[in-house]
Amino acid sequence: MSKLKKYADNQRKIKPSDIDKLDFENITLLDLREQDEYIVSTLPGAVNIPMSDIGATINNFPKDKQILVFCREGDWSEEVLELLLDVGYDAYELEGGFNAYRNKPKTSDTREEKIEENNNYFLDVRGLKCPGPIVKTGDKIRSVESNAVLTIVADEAAFYSDIRVWCDRTGNILQELSKNGEEITAVIKKSNTPPAMNTSSDSGNDKTMVVFSGDLDKTIAAFIIANGALAMGRKVTIFFTFWGLNVLRKSKKVKTQKSLIEKMFGFMMPRGTKKLGLSRMNMGGAGAKMIRAVMKSKGVDSLEELIEQAIKHGARIVACQMSMDIMGIKKEELIDGVELGGAATFLGSGENSDMSLFI
Fold first, then answer.
1. 27-49 tens-digit pLDDT
2. pTM reported for the whole predicted model
3. N or C: which end of the chain has fewer CB within 10 A?
4. For residue 191, is pLDDT > 50?
């Protein structure tokens, strides 16, 4: 059982800064806000019972679990806490409500520090999402002297790709890059020397595409172009974002830990290429089946075959980490051969390309 008592004051209030230290699986989290607020954002695993309905359900919670109750700003939860204590629950409340938790200072606001010895600096960007880590890195590098060494700690998977591209394009030296679980550490040496330009005969002929759409016909077009470019010996990067991420989802359900709104997104969106519809004349899915049948009869490779060919021939398939976080898509749900990236990954690829398409 979670030991809520050690985080609570004598009025059974728990500070927002301590919430992330709790084991949510062993607590009943009770959200008293209205359903529209709950759907947008809540604590992981929280049960939503609006204040107006709490009276009828006050005795329905398991007595073998501690309860953490919260509302918007802490006024309702204080009243409900008293009711829960009166009927025998071991209950606590979130001080200041969910708004206080949502607006608590990010770790990156408090853990950035300068290490005085040997011109070294430290930057903690854990908790920030793309493009935040790269923006913070750029700001910090500009503020320090030449040849200074900056150690950055991040926890967004896209940062592993972004920081390499960022250093390559800015001329700063990436001395070390490592990953330990979700934590990524990069060591950068500031350089005022601009990056060396590639002067080989085939420089600037790469192809970059952003696949924003999750439509079958548009995705087929993207991979036909990609395979054509690969056949010409060009490097191809395809950056999938928002609805385009559905193209990369595995067809079979993968069990992952998700919030209610993430589960709703997953339920409403197509899972994988076989579920994609047409941008026009979809006719409840019949149009997509007709297109596939015509492609087969004409000897045109299916979308699944086109994707397999592109990956086999070296296409770089990148999923936008920020969009994944917003839409509740986890890395485990994506097909093999996909890497995570952010804005810097796309921009770095685009600067080496003579063609960038938004599909």
1. 899 999 887 778 777 888 888 98
2. 0.58
3. N
4. yes
pLDDT class for 271, splitting at 50, 70, 90? confident
Distance CA 27, CA 69 (A): 10
Closest by CA to 151, choosing from 181, 112, 182, is 112
Q: Mean pLDDT throughout 275-281?
A: 90
Residue 111 clears pLDDT 90, i.e. is over it = no
Question: Domain spans of the chain?
Answer: 4-102, 107-189, 206-358
Report the sign of the C-alpha dihedral through residues 31, 67, 325, 329, in that order.
Answer: negative
Cβ atoms of residues 208 and 225 within 8 Å: no
Does residue 209 contact residue 357 with C-beta atoms inside 8 Å?
A: yes
- Tokens encoding 14: 């728990």
CA–CA separation, 71 and 109 (whole Å): 26
* pLDDT at residue 233, as a whole number: 80
CB 329 within 8 A of CB 352: no
Task: With CA atoms as reference, report the closest residue to 186 among 126, 130, 139.
Answer: 126
Question: Domain 206-358 is classified in which CATH homologous superfamily?
Answer: DsrEFH-like (3.40.1260.10)
325 phi/psi in degrees, rounded to 5: -65, -40
Per CATH, domain 4-102 is 3.40.250.10? yes
- Check residues 171 and 104 and name the one with the higher pLDDT: 171
Q: Are 191 and 171 spatial neighbours (Cβ–Cβ below 8 Å)?
A: yes
Fold category of 107-189 in CATH: Translation Initiation Factor IF3 (3.30.110)
Residue 71 CB contacts under 8 Å (≥ 6 apart), including other chains: 31, 32, 33, 51, 77, 80, 97, 98
User: How many Cβ atoms sit within 10 Å of the Cβ of residue 132?
Assistant: 19
